[in-house]
Design brief:
Shape: globular
CATH class of the largest domain: Alpha Beta
CATH superfamily of the largest domain: Collagenase (Catalytic Domain)
Structural class: alpha+beta
Number of strands: 12
Oligomer: single chain
Number of helices: 25
Strand content: 5-15%
Length: 680
């Protein structure tokens, strides 16, 4: 299900699960990570020709992609370090000690159950059988809403998604929301592209579906026929779906209507029966993100026979459950989603997957222990200070803009002044007391955790939005801006080296975490964020002249990034990545402005032969050092709103005259773009 909270993050790591080689006990201590890495630099490369490979060239040579990864970069380094910290916490709490408090009992028993492969193998497919049996027992399509509601509660992504979200036009209130879903490929275009690789990928997905059905006990002939049925239904769903770029436009995913009008769109689907099953609070209106999708879904339900619908539901149930089923299902799931789609060579060790699943399902319980180990109060205070320093720089930047009229500047400055800052972790931890974690029941724990979260989201319908709630867990190596709440969020997991280092000088820290802060603040004024006002409502606060000028300046970024070739014949999608590219380019500018403010009239001296400006830009470039498999690079270019790492560096510094001055680049150098793109 697509995110219902319309948030814009810094990066997407290729670590995922649905329902969620046994490793030995943890012994290695997390390695220290260098913030400014002299050994990463390749001095044989001219920084004015290719700054990314100058700053990262030796690092790229010395850091091949591990076989259990599809990419390997600085974010991954820190993610792995955080995982090792979490592993140590979880292994300590997984000991069946009656003295544990309730929080530690839950995280410890969840992790221990996930690691207990013998118990998982012994149970086989029994934990998922009741759901398959319920599907198979359907005698009429009128039973679909009830069965589907039960599947949604436990985590299956069939037909559509249902939950809650802030009302785009009244963002202080949560409303119900129905959203497109039910597809196994990352984007609707994957079902229709005719190039050889796309055709091959669909063929391999069909083979994967068939193999999964065989593992559940179907004959090869029936499994092959059922796989074709699934592909036919998913292709029909994709036909009526919005692609990733269209989903970035809030106007295209906001269609508030009455429940009565929703029912008119889908006469073949009894919404009352669905709502009775999932039990949301009473409501009379909701956001139907994609009405054409819902109408198309109605046609699919009406035109397909009951057996075909059952086949599709069985697949979505098995797909969701595979990570917590026996080894054969786990390996088959990895073979397609890890190896074929992303290019990883080996399945991640069991402990890594179980740490990740615990973080996914009990993130604020596990996060309490992580914060105690890895994020002292001084780090939170320094981060907040840097946020204020970046806000001051952005205020100056907006004030001095030549293209914006005073009327719109006033609105922009008001919005900036009202951005809330959330640092490290929640002020109030989530209460998991109603979530029952049973030792030795890995699949049950995962399903109950999904049900807990599903219910938690539904309970929000009709209530005031809690702007203190977090959308990421504390150990997450990421950050985000939420335009519906007008706040920036920096989890403790990213407030570590190489992004922030208490031992590093200001030039390095402002090039790292300073740029991250600037990036998230700028999201409030990118092509998406600029459509939301100071209170987080979808509302135009621009004069027509300023909006026209803004769109023209943004088009420069679209054209620039469209020209970048990622792999083979695949280009960046300038419109898909526009928000992130705007945030990168604006973020580095205001981070440098803030650095100059902090340095004052006494510039810092050279360190290791580099000026503060040079260290600032190298620090920025080095947070993006990353190797990717061709499969991962292709997937990112086609579906991810973030540009490839080399273009997040070269695409940005080539627009920055301060970079050219810092490294003495001539006017005709590749790292000096003409005309340079700039919005903020």
């Amino acid at each position: 299900m697509r995110r219902l909270l319309f948030t814009t993050g810094l990066v997407l790591l290729a670590v995922s699960s649905t329902w969620a080689q046994n490793a030995g006990a943890s012994s290695a201590k997390p390695a220290e990570i260098s913030s400014f890495d002299l050994t990463a630099i390749d001095k044989s490369v001219d920084p004015c020709q290719d700054f990314y490979h100058y700053a990262c060239g030796t690092w790229l040579k010395n850091n091949p992609i591990p076989p259990d990864q599809s990419s390997w970069g600085r974010f991954n380094e820190l993610h792995e370090r955080n995982q090792m910290i979490l592993r140590e916490i979880l292994e300590k709490q997984s000991v069946d000690n009656p003295g544990r408090d309730r929080v530690n009992q839950k995280i410890g028993d969840y992790y221990d159950s996930c690691m207990d492969e013998a118990a998982i193998e012994a149970k086989g497919t029994a934990p998922v059988k009741p759901y398959i049996d319920q599907i198979d027992s359907m005698k009429d399509k009128s039973e679909l809403p009830t069965v589907l509601g039960g599947l949604h509660r436990t985590g299956a992504n069939a037909f559509f998604g249902f939950g809650s979200q802030p009302d785009f036009k009244d963002s202080k209130v949560n409303i119900a929301s129905a959203d497109q879903g039910g597809m196994s490929l990352p984007d609707r275009d994957y079902y229709f592209k005719t190039d050889a690789k796309s055709v091959e990928l669909r063929e391999k997905l069909e083979q994967h579906i068939a193999k999964t059905f065989e593992l559940y006990g179907e004959s090869p002939a029936k499994a092959a026929a059922d796989a074709k049925t699934v592909m036919q239904i998913e292709t029909a769903l994709a036909k009526n779906s919005l692609d990733r770029t269209e989903q970035r436009d809030p106007e295209k995913i906001y269609h508030k209507m009455s429940v009565a009008d929703l029912k008119k769109l889908t006469p073949a689907f009894a919404w009352n029966e669905y709502f009775t099953t999932v039990q949301p609070p009473t409501f009379d209106s909701l956001n139907v993100g994609e009405p054409d999708f819902v109408k198309g879904m109605n046609t699919i339900i009406a035109s397909n026979n009951l057996d075909d619908i059952k086949t599709y539901l069985r697949w979505q149930t098995l797909r969701a459950a595979s990570p917590m089923l026996p080894k054969a299902f786990v390996e088959e799931d990895f073979d397609f989603y890890g190896k074929t789609l992303r290019g990883a060579k080996e399945l991640r060790p069991r402990w890594k997957r179980c740490v990740q699943y615990t973080d996914n399902d009990l993130g604020e319980a596990l996060g309490q222990a992580y914060v105690a180990v890895a994020f002292p109060p001084a780090a939170k205070a320094r981060t907040l200070q840097m946020v204020h320093e970046l806000e001051t720089a952005l205020k100056q930047d907006i004030t001095e803009l030549s293209w914006m009229t005073p009327e719109t500047k006033k609105q922009a400055l008001e919005k900036l002044s009202r951005i809330d800052n959330k640092i490290g972790y929640p002020n109030k931890w989530r209460d998991y007391s109603s979530l029952n974690i049973v030792r030795g029941d890995a699949m049950g724990n995962s399903m109950r955790a999904n049900q807990f979260e599903f219910n938690r989201q539904l309970k929000k319908i009709g209530t005031a939005v809690d702007r203190n709630e977090w959308g990421m867990t504390p150990p997450t190596v990421n950050a985000y801006y939420n335009p519906l709440e007008n706040n920036v969020n920096f989890p403790a997991g990213i407030l570590q080296p190489p992004f922030y280092d208490q031992k590093a000088d200001d030039a390095v820290n402002f090039g790292g975490i300073g740029m991250v802060i600037g990036h998230e603040l700028t999201h409030g004024f990118d092509d998406e964020g600029s459509q939301f006002d100071v209170d987080g409502n979808l509302k135009n606060w621009w004069t027509p002249k300023d909006k026209e000028q803004f769109d023209a300046l943004e088009q420069c970024f679209v054209n620039e990034y469209d020209s970048f070739v990622v792999v083979d014949d695949v280009h960046e999608k300038g419109k898909l990545t526009l928000g992130e590219n705007t945030a990168d380019n604006g973020g580095i500018r205001i981070a440098r402005m803030a650095l100059l403010d902090v340095m004052g009239t006494t510039p810092l001296k050279e360190v290791d032969g580099y000026t503060p400006d040079q260290r600032f830009f190298i620090s920025y470039a080095q947070i993006w050092c990353q190797n990717q498999t061709p499969e991962a690079a292709r997937l990112q270019a086609l579906t991810n709103e973030h540009s490839a790492p080399q273009f997040r560096v070269n695409g940005v510094v080539s627009n920055t005259s301060d970079f050219a001055k810092a490294f003495g680049c001539k006017a005709d150098s590749p790292m000096v773009r003409k005309p340079a793109c700039r919005v903020w």
